[in-house]
Amino acid sequence: MQGKRKLKRRHLIYYLRVFEKKADQLIGHMVDISSGGMMLISEDPIKTGMVFDLRMVLPVELEGSREITFSAESMWCRADENPDFYNTGFQWIKTSPAHIKTIDHLIQKFCFKESLGQL
Q1: Three-class SS of residue 40?
Q2: What CA–CA distance (Å, rounded) separates 84 from 109?
Q3: pLDDT digits (tens, 9 = 90+) for 69-114
Q4: How far is residue 110's CA from residue 96's CA, in Å, rounded to a whole number?
Q5: Quick one: which H or E segment has residue 103?
Q6: What share of the chain in percent tops pLDDT 70?
Q7: Which residues of 52-78 are buried (b: 16+ CB within 10 A; e: fewer)?
């Protein structure tokens, strides 16, 4: 059973490509992010309860690099509304102050801005 989300999920402007670092294989595209984790959309289901070493390609340079690496644990996986895809929730592993700073920059640069009630 899933727990209730405590951190605000932010939707990305870009679907950033995420690769499994060792095999250098695309596993999915990040569709949203929070300070606690992320959600990927993929063509294949991703096994839950596993820790992945991942690499994400950025559309622009961020902190001197066009990619970031991180570890995350797959917490849940379910079919997307489109039956050709799956959504998987990941929780960050071993977050350091530098990792939190990178996540904050990702949210600032690549997430939709909050609506201020204007149409």
Answers
A1: strand
A2: 29
A3: 889 999 999 999 999 999 999 998 977 777 677 777 766 766 545 4
A4: 21
A5: helix 97-110
A6: 74
A7: bebebebeeebeeeeebebebebbbbe
Q: pTM for the full model? A: 0.75
Do strands 37-42 and 25-33 pair parallel, antiparallel, or not at all (unpaired)?
A: antiparallel
Ranges of each domain in the chain: 10-110
Q: Compute the distance between CA of residue 57 and CA of residue 51 in angstroms, rounded to an integer.
A: 19
> N- to C-terminal Cα distance for the chain?
37
Q: Are 30 and 11 in contact (CB under 8 A)?
A: no
10-110: CATH architecture: Beta Barrel (2.40)
Q: For residues 43 and 9, is the Cβ–Cβ distance under 8 A?
A: no
Give the C-alpha separation, 68 to 18, whole Å: 10
Q: Nearest CA to 12 among 109, 118, 96? A: 109
